[in-house]
Design goal:
The protein has 90 residues and is mainly α. Helices cover 51% and strands 7% of the residues. It has five helices and two strands, in the order H-E-H-E-H-H-H. It has a two-stranded antiparallel sheet. Helix 1 packs across helix 2. The longest helix is centred in the middle third of the chain and has 13 residues. It is globular, with a radius of gyration of 12 Å. The N and C termini lie far apart (36 Å).
């Protein structure tokens, strides 16, 4: 079960467009929310940005349920997030 603090950190991540959390730091970042556990999106390679967008799309329902409740994310929810926009590669 995710705590209120972890939910807050997750929501903060999704609502910004400058940083991503790498897989190896994810659990610690969720618990503590330290900026030192993030990597600037501008320093990520193209493939990592594509993979992060794919992960967000795959996890959209679970992410939405964690933050807002409900079983399914509305259409377009994840692609409208500032984080997704920041990660997107054209």
């Amino acid at each position: 079960m995710i705590t209120d603090t972890e939910t807050k950190h997750l929501q903060q991540l999704l609502e910004q467009d400058r940083a991503w959390v790498l897989r190896a730091r994810w659990v610690r970042w969720l618990r503590e929310g330290r900026a030192s556990d993030t990597v600037p999106i501008s320093q990520m390679v193209h493939d990592d940005r594509i993979a992060a967008c794919a992960w967000l799309r795959q996890q959209r329902h679970a992410l939405h349920e964690t933050i807002h409740g409900g079983r399914r994310a509305p259409d377009g929810w994840v692609t409208g997030l500032p984080l997704y926009e920041g990660l997107r590669v054209d």
